[in-house]
Amino acid sequence: MGYAAFLTDVRKDHDRAQKLYERALKANPNDATILGNYANFLTDVRKDHDRAQKLYERALKANPNDAIVLGNYAAFLTGVRKKYDRARKLYEHALKADPNDANNLGNFAGLMFILNNGNAANELLQRAIAAETKDPAENLATELCFYVFANGPEKGRPAGLAKLKRLLVKRGARSPDWDLSKNVERATKDRHPDSKWLGKLADVINGKADPSVLDDWPAWKNTKV
Predict the structure, then answer these.
(1) What is the per-residue pLDDT for 10?
(2) What domains are there in the chain, each with its CATH number?
(3) Is the confidence at residue 162, as pLDDT, over 90?
(4) Quick one: which of 146, 129, 122 has its CA closest to 198?
């Protein structure tokens, strides 16, 4: 599985990677890790969401308590299917299996902001930040900082934006393919003072736009890094 991931992420040889996933699955048809990783590949690379969902279901049948598979499937249901109720249950299950998984904590926080449950979202977000600090991951950090600035309490927004700007401009961090549109919608409904810029900020995080699209944004210009 490591070689298939290498071919996907580094070599961009998706055809060969898929053949390796198929061989691994044929040899181990009930391995939750293989099933889950292949599902990630199918939805992220091939956009074959129907088959990916079947593989996620098979993975959970093989190991119902795999926190990584639970979290990845919950993210799929949130971003692709918009099945928020089931995603929420899967995140809850995942955090029972591994209470300190930074990715699941952060992604669950993002979902709870979408669902307008600010108290739960902020608690999850703080736990995610604490967990991520122990095991830094720049793509996750960009997402967490976005939630802090877009959806979190007003008092924490300047620091969140400052860290986000450092990550994006100084470190070149990005989180491709992560759908932040519903969090932008929630911030707009909550009358965020910079709501008209959040979509552009999300595009920069996703790698769809250069940070220069934010040059005319006063809050961005006035944030020192």
Answers:
(1) 59
(2) 1-64 (1.25.40.10)
(3) yes
(4) 146
